[in-house]
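Hi V.,

You were right to ask for the full record rather than a summary. Here it is.
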Amino acid sequence: MENINLKSYEEFVKQVTSTESNEVTALERRLYDLEKESGVNIALLLTGAIGLSSEGGEFNEIVKKCLFQGKQ
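Predicted structure:
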């Protein structure tokens, strides 16, 4: 197994991560701009997206139990 240089990895992550992912003020500005430009309620969009992801995880847990753990 190859050793990972954590300092190099940290630099890589910094290069590929957006300002909005690193700074809350940049994220806040982006969310405001998106809502203003699109007319979409971004708070509701985030709530729906996170909720959908959570429900999908719960469903996958049921499938896992049935397939791999012998549950019915």
